Every structure is written in structure tokens, then in C-alpha cells.
Amino acid sequence: MTAAATIEASPSQAHYLGTVMRLKPGAEVALFNGRDGEWLAHIERIGRGKASLAIRSQLRPQSASPDLWLLFAPIKRGPIDFLAQKATELGVSALRPVITRNTAVERVNVERLRANAVEAAEQCGRLDVPEVAEPQPLDAVLAGWSPGRRIMLCDETGTAPPVADGLPREPGPWAVLVGPEGGFAPAELDALAKTPFVTRVGLGPRILRADTAALAALSCWQALIGDWRQAKR
Amino acid sequence: MTAAATIEASPSQAHYLGTVMRLKPGAEVALFNGRDGEWLAHIERIGRGKASLAIRSQLRPQSASPDLWLLFAPIKRGPIDFLAQKATELGVSALRPVITRNTAVERVNVERLRANAVEAAEQCGRLDVPEVAEPQPLDAVLAGWSPGRRIMLCDETGTAPPVADGLPREPGPWAVLVGPEGGFAPAELDALAKTPFVTRVGLGPRILRADTAALAALSCWQALIGDWRQAKR
User: What is this structure's pTM?
Assistant: First the structure.
């Protein structure tokens, strides 16, 4: 993006600006594309499914979210949409659905998750949108894993150290891994526990739903080693 | 509760057991009343809106949740139900809606919140249900505050210390206070910041929705000074 350029909104963006927000020509909007920071623009023309925006000036430079993936077993429609929104607010860089042995829901509408992530990024002031991957079997994901990325495994068996004690204060790429409703299979958990880049942590004495566990784990990670340790941008 | 006693289910409990869960006489269920621990029982008789349960033996002694209140500005229907469920899973002892200056939603269906809290307590293995208070103006709540209970104030202005640094590691009664969508009014925040039992903490650089902020704050509190520091029950 550069000042004085004009860009065309996509049909869904134009619908949002014109029909949902009821903006007219001249209205100001803030734009981001995940690379060039945030820009002030105004609406030049707007009509059914079309809008053109004149870029004025940069509001903020680009800022990166921490390199934190969320690996999660897919859950049903309402909770998974909610999870995509909240995980975006909590600053994940990628949402990766993984199929585990006890995963009941295997079909994932990746496009809908992406739409949820885009909307949440717009709402929370992020200048990037987390990548949303196609679902993959957990075994396959781990077989292709780059060992430089550590995994915080949410272990609900009660045998893992509490998260505040167990999470190594090591920066660098991480992933939070949360199992399905019903938990990981014992053999799956054994194999994960023996994997060198995996750290098991516990999230307390109560049984958390899969989406709650994911949000709690992301919050703890951000508070302990993520960008919540810094002041606000 | 005592072994060999028989108790009658409420109509809604009977509906849940018979119509939702489709249980028949002889089926085993676990019971709790918030005082006597968890008990194994079996269904003696079940019919339309009625069920009697014969208590067999205690499964677990009573366990207490931490003395942690959630004070939150009411939000609209979907998110507030969700918040009551998730906060229950995260172990709050009371849900207290507070009306702040920028609170847009002032009517709260307390009975519906209670039903959400009961269902979440059943699902997550808690043996108690958080109290759900009637909404009150924040000023009135603070005027009657017992100073022995500390408040963790989620401050989104970017000037508060990060939660992992700012939260005193002091046990004892606490409350997490989360403002409305749109935040606290500056005068409100000034007054809160000067209150001796209030600790301001920040939850990172992104703008969190009110429900996300509440769940993130409760997770951090539990991880840093709550019962997530202990092994699973």
C-alpha cells in the first residue's frame, strides 16, 4: 500500500462497508494487508458489491504476532467458530486442525474458519490474520514437524506439571496442542510425552472443554512467554 | 446426602435424565449438592417430569473452588451465556454482573446465567456451582467492598504492568474485574486505580472482547495463584 493509491474492495468487503456499516463516500476506514502496516483511507465510490478506497497515510507500521500455532482437534460448528475468533484475538499465528484418534468431528469448513479469523483480526486491531490450515492427522503433522518449534501439550491426566511451573521460559516458535473432547488416547499421549520438543502442562483440577482448554492455554502462554509481557502497541 | 437415602429430582433434572439422556430405571448417575461431595446413585423410578434416585455411596469428598469472583459488565445474550459456562469451568466462585458507565446492556437474565453455570459445573466435574448475583452498579459494589478481597483489574489502556509481572502472588479472596465493550470511562479507571485493594494488570497489545478478556484473566489468575498450581484432584 502507498499513499494516494486507490484500491478496490472485494465484493464481501464492499458488502460489509456499504450494507452492514452503511458507510457513504468520504467515510474513513483503516486498512491492513498483513504486510504494510495500517493505513487510513476514504471511500471514493461505493455501490452494490463494489467499493473503491483512496489511501491517505500510514497509521501504524506493520507489527508481527508471536510465532504461536494452535493445534486443535476439530469440534462442532458453534464452538469451532468461537475458537477461531478467540484464538485470533489471543494472538495465534496459525490455526491447524489436527485429527486425533478420539476426534469425532473430522470435517472442517476451513473457509468459514478463515472468515472468522479475518473478522476477529479486524476487531482486535491485529495487522495480520492467522493462517488457517487444512485438517491433517496428528501423526502426519508430527512426522513433518520442525523440531525447532516446541509444543505445549495440554495434558488433562493430572500427571503433568502445572502450566506456570512446567512451561519453559524459552522464546522462539511454539505450538499449543489441545486434544478432542474425551481427550487423547493413552498411546497417543505416551508417544507425545516421549517426543523431545513436547512439554506437557496441566490446566488445573477441572475438566475443561476443548475450546476452553485452548483459550486458557493460549492465555497462559501469552502471559508467561508471549507478547503480553510487553506494553501495548 | 447419605447412603441408602432416596431423593426426588426436580422437574428439569428429571427431564434431563429421562428425555435428554434417555436413562432408564437402574441407570447410574453421580450427584452433588455443593456441600456433601459427589455420590453414586441409581434411578429407581423415572417418568414425565419426575425421577427418584437411590443414593449408594460417596464417590468424592466435597472440594472447594478458589474464592475468586468474576465482576463483569453484562454483554449480549450469546456471549454472556458462554461467559457463564466458561467462567464456571475456569473455577470462579461467584459471577457478579456490574453496571459501569459505558455498559450498554443493563438487563441480565440471572436465572439463565444460573442454568448455564449449573450445566457447566456438571460437565466439568465441579462439586459446587458459582453463585450468580443480581446486577449492581459498579459504584455500589465497590462502596460495599470488603477490603480483604483484592481486585485484579483488567486495564486495556496499555499503561498497566503485564499480568505475569503485576499480579501479586498473594492467596486469599480475589475478584477479577473486566469492563464493558468500549472499556471503562477514564474517571472510573482513575478512581479504581487509586483504590488500595485494586491491582491493575494488562493483557497484551491486542484489543480483547469483554468475554475473551474475562476468560484470559481468569486463566492467568488460576495459573499464577489459583488452584491450577496444584495437581489434579
Answer: 0.91
